[in-house]
Design goal:
With 232 residues, this protein is mainly α. 64% of the residues lie in helices and 0% in strands. It contains 10 helices and no strands. Helix 4 crosses helix 6 and helix 5 packs antiparallel against helix 6.
Amino acid sequence: MFSANVLFFSIHKIKSELRALLLLFGHTGLTLGLALLLEKSINRSRITQKLVANQTPAVTPSPVTVSTSVNSLKSQPVVIPPLKLDYRLVLIGSLLPDIIDKPLGLLILQTSLGNGRTIGHTLLFSLFLVSFGLLLLKKRNEHWLLIIACGSILHLILDYMWFYPNPLLWPLFGFGFLQSDASSWLYKTLSGFSHPSVYVPEISGFILCAIITGILFRRHLIGQFIKRGDLY
């Protein structure tokens, strides 16, 4: 008979098998790939909307209401600007939780905490980024913080953080984080490469990063990427 104990054991078994250990290329490569797909699909949709809007015949006004302003307005084309992401911000967002937590938990608080998943891996931190990102978008029409926030949220998804409710839902279970042994982090990281959930996304991310880097070099776009974050 199915019970809560069986459910807990199953979740714990899945959690231990997944290992949830994505590293540099797993996060950066997969996030860049998903961002590129999203940008392309949104721009393709905008082009379709623009074509449909510009091909819609204008309504002929009645002779009584004909004016110069109406006749000039009906010939104006619809302009929908393409979405352009700054992929430097995408890269920062993809690694931001680790940029914050790894030095904090494994170096600064090595003896008292020793855990590489703290503030940056919390849902509260991501909601904080999204809230201020939306505020910036509304007040100044700037979307740079939203791009970082989306990359940070994707980092939590790729880390399977729903299996780790203590950091994810902080401070719901208390204000402290789980303590661990920082000296064993490197060993756990290297041993994780024996599991497909670690080396498959890491290799996939590396391939995507290599392809994107190769395209930038071949098209002489490295300087453009460094200055503006463009990939094409």
